[in-house]
Design goal:
Blueprint lengths: L2 E6 L17 E5 L5 E4 L6 H9 L8 E3 L5 H4 L2 H7 L5 E3 L6 E4 L7 E2 L5 H5 L4 E3 L4 E4 L2 E4 L15 E5 L2 E4 L7 E6 L2 E6 L6 H11 L5 E6 L4 E2 L2 E5 L3 H12 L3 E6 L5 H11 L3 E3 L5 E3 L1
Parallel strand pairs: 3-4, 4-5, 5-8, 14-15, 15-18, 18-19
Antiparallel strand pairs: 1-2, 1-20, 2-3, 6-7, 6-11, 9-10, 10-13, 11-12, 13-14, 16-17
Helix pairs in contact: 6-7
Length: about 280
């Protein structure tokens, strides 16, 4: 039996009032073959404190995978490296520019992590640029299709270098697929490249295989304000209808999907959508 544990999300499960929360994602995957994976680390060491309370051994993790170079997904890297001295850390190559968020009339904000961490621990990082099997049945996918528009909330996210700023194409984003018993389990951090594009890529990479569940954020917030939707009510409702057409048994989401968008999706998708709050667990 595989156990999937939410170590960090914006919201705390009512069953776990002892846990910390923050704007971010961190998920532990404890597989039935004995391997374990950390997918993202939130923005601090809170994931580590929560893991101890939830009985997850971070020191024994076999591999850590980071979905993209934003602070709310990679901010706990230093804490992970200190706690776990052996596991490789997988992510896309470092972006050419600095990850920032910006809205006209407001100051530029840093959205990335300090790049010094990569030079301080060079031997721990594995940069991936193609589909890679990192453990038996565990795949990192980097080449994400562009058949559907990217989330509108991306319009406030940029790369910046030498005073120049351009829209982030999110070539530093990846997602992870676990193949188990001829079914797939998909993990995405923020889906900046679009949740439908991620699903399309999954089905192209593993044709004729049903998806048991998808876990991750859909980035339906407006990046300039966490309580604002990055799209109209109709657009989000239409997305919910489209997601129902995919061969996905269950969706678990949170973080950058946002509560307002989640409620709209839930009204459309019903029992096929659930919130994955800090402390929640899935067994497969």
């Amino acid at each position: 039996m595989m156990r999937i544990v939410s170590l960090i999300d914006n919201i705390r499960s009512p069953d776990h009032p002892e846990l910390s929360v923050e704007h971010g994602i961190s998920i532990a995957i404890l597989m039935d073959d004995g391997h374990s994976i950390l997918f993202d680390s939130g923005q601090s060491d809170a994931f580590l404190r929560n893991a101890r309370l939830l009985g997850v051994d971070i020191a024994g993790i076999d591999a850590a995978v980071f979905s993209h170079h934003h602070y709310d997904h990679c901010g706990g890297i230093a804490a992970f490296i200190k706690e776990n001295i052996t596991a490789p850390l997988y992510l896309r190559p470092i972006p050419e520019g600095r990850c920032v968020s910006w809205t006209e009339g407001r100051p530029l904000k840093n959205a990335g992590i300090k790049k010094e961490i990569f030079t301080q621990h060079t031997e721990r990082f594995v940069f991936v640029n193609q589909l890679s099997e990192i453990l038996p049945g565990v795949f990192i996918i980097t080449d994400i299709s562009r058949g559907h528009p990217l989330p509108r909330g991306n319009r406030h996210l940029f790369l910046e270098k030498d005073g120049e700023r351009w829209n982030d194409p999110f070539e530093h984003e990846l997602f992870m697929v676990i193949k188990r018993d001829m079914k797939l389990i998909v993990f995405s951090g923020c889906s900046h490249r679009g949740i439908q594009n991620i699903l399309d890529t999954t089905l192209q990479s593993f044709p004729d295989m049903p998806i048991e569940c998808l876990v991750g954020g859909f980035h339906l917030i407006d990046s300039s304000a966490a309580n604002k939707m990055g799209g109209s009510r109709q657009e989000i409702q239409n997305l919910g209808k489209a997601l129902l057409e995919y061969p996905v048994k269950q969706y678990y989401t949170g973080h950058c999907t946002g509560i307002k968008a989640f409620d709209l999706l839930k009204a459309v998708m019903g029992d096929r959508l659930a919130y994955f709050a800090t402390g929640d667990q899935i067994t497969i």
